[in-house]
TrEMBL record:
This is 4Fe-4S ferredoxin-type domain-containing protein. The lineage of its organism: Bacteria, Bacillati, Bacillota, Clostridia, Eubacteriales. It holds the Pfam family Fer4_7. The keyword Repeat applies. Keywords: 4Fe-4S, Electron transport, Iron, Iron-sulfur, Metal-binding, Repeat, Transport. SUPFAM superfamilies: 4Fe-4S ferredoxins. PANTHER family: ADENYLYLSULFATE REDUCTASE, BETA SUBUNIT, L-ASPARTATE SEMIALDEHYDE SULFURTRANSFERASE IRON-SULFUR SUBUNIT. One of its GO terms (molecular function) is 4 iron, 4 sulfur cluster binding. The keyword 4Fe-4S applies. Residues 114-143, 148-177 form the 4Fe-4S ferredoxin-type domain.
Length: 191
């Protein structure tokens, strides 16, 4: 409660730690200070995670995956996600730590069978698949002979096919959906 008194502006509130009413005389009352994000563009590109229109990081699903990103293995909590009070920040931090622990506690991770794979003989290391991969699964790797080619981490790959459809060399395919298999299906349908 705020009251103007001869001695100044009196604010009365219940301190939830002391669990009793407290009175203070305030010079300035700030009901809510603005919380604005930093420029998260670089971080967003680095981890391939999205930000919303205000510049805060955007979760994979508001209700089903509230501390996850679409990119596996990256979690968030706190003000990175948006303005919230301390209790919510702590609860969200515990949730993010719990989600990370579920992955770290496993000795092995089962991957989806529909992962992309690279034919290194055809790959010209143009890097297009690395650019388009939304899951940060594709990278360019140089072997001990100095040959550079794309490589896919199947644990991160979502099998979306963006790399395969963007590769001009036809060097990268998704298991079960290779270019040859799709063309064979198209031919069967067109007959
Ligand atoms: S887009 Fe194709 S050719 Fe280019 S790096 Fe990826 S797999 Fe290799
Ligand atoms: S199939 Fe999708 S997720 Fe997998 S490497 Fe290609 S672009 Fe990335």
């Amino acid at each position: 409660m705020v009251q103007e008194t001869p001695a100044g502006t009196k604010v009365t509130f219940v301190d939830h730690v002391l669990n009793r009413p407290v009175e203070i005389y305030a010079d300035i009352i700030g009901l809510a200070s603005a919380v604005v994000p930093n420029d998260n563009t670089a971080l967003s590109k680095l981890f391939k995670v999205p930000v919303n229109a205000e510049g805060f990081f955007l979760e994979a699903h508001l209700k089903l995956r509230p501390v996850d990103f679409g990119t596996d293995g990256v979690f968030m909590c706190g003000l990175a996600h948006g303005p919230k009070n301390l209790e919510e920040n702590i609860a969200q931090a515990k949730a993010a730590a719990g989600r990370a622990a579920t992955a770290l506690a496993k000795e092995n991770i089962q991957t989806d069978g529909k992962a992309a794979f690279v034919n290194k003989r055809k790959c010209v290391a143009c890097g297009v698949c690395v650019e388009v991969c939304p899951a940060k699964a594709a990278t360019l790797v140089t072997d001990e002979r100095g040959n550079t080619a794309a490589d896919v981490n199947p644990a991160l790959c979502k099998g979306c096919g963006a790399c395969s459809s963007s590769c001009r060399s036809g060097a990268i395919n998704v298991k079960g959906c290779s270019n040859e298999q799709i063309m064979a299906m198209v031919q069967v349908v067109s007959w």
